[in-house]
């Protein structure tokens, strides 16, 4: 493993909708691990909504850079949805180019269940921020 990776990446557990100060970081990977669903859904999707603000306590609005998630376009609400296995356990990675985003971002993660009887599912997440402008982190 390159030492550059070790000194230039910040990885931390992440709780949906917490504020991320991305100062000095130009990219990130948000990993979402889907739990085991209840209610036997016929489909599961992980929905990500990215919002941004100039200040930590400011008003957050949809990310204006529609290509902030690499290879996928965000809608007008800053959202994207990725399907995963209906039985849960899937890992979904969102590769993000944050260069066009404001300093503070929020990533709201939601597991959307379709079908089944009162289907529900939870997920856990972690974020890795990279491309640090200051080395080492």
What does the model show?
This protein has 137 residues and is mostly beta strands. The chain has one helix and nine strands, in the order H-E-E-E-E-E-E-E-E-E. Strands 2, 4, 5, 6 and 8 form a five-stranded antiparallel sheet that branches. A four-stranded antiparallel sheet has the order 1-9-3-7. The chain is globular, with a radius of gyration of 16 Å. The model has no long low-confidence stretch (mean pLDDT 91).
Poorly predicted regions are none
Total strands: the figure is 9
The count of helical stretches stands at 1
Query: What structural class do you assign from the helix and strand content?
Result: mainly beta
Q: Between the first and last Cα atoms, what is the distance in angstroms?
A: 17 Å
- Range of helix content: under 10%
Radius of gyration: 16 Å
| Average residue-wise pLDDT | 91
Question: Strand percentage, roughly?
Answer: over 45%
Largest sheet: 5 strands, antiparallel
The H-and-E topology, N to C, reads as HEEEEEEEEE
């Amino acid at each position: 493993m390159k030492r550059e990776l070790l000194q230039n990446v910040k990885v931390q557990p992440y709780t949906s909708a917490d504020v991320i100060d991305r100062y000095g970081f130009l990219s990130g990977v948000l990993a979402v691990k889907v739990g085991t669903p209840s209610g036997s859904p016929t489909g599961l999707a992980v929905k990500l909504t990215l919002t941004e603000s100039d200040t930590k306590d400011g008003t957050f609005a949809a990310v204006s850079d529609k290509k902030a998630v690499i290879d996928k376009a965000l809608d007008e609400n800053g959202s994207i949805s990725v399907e995963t296995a209906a039985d849960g356990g899937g890992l979904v990675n969102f590769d993000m180019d944050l260069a066009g985003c404001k300093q503070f971002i929020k990533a709201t993660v939601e597991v959307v269940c379709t079908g089944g009887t009162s289907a529900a599912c939870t997920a856990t997440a972690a974020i890795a921020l990279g491309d640090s402008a200051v080395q080492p982190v």
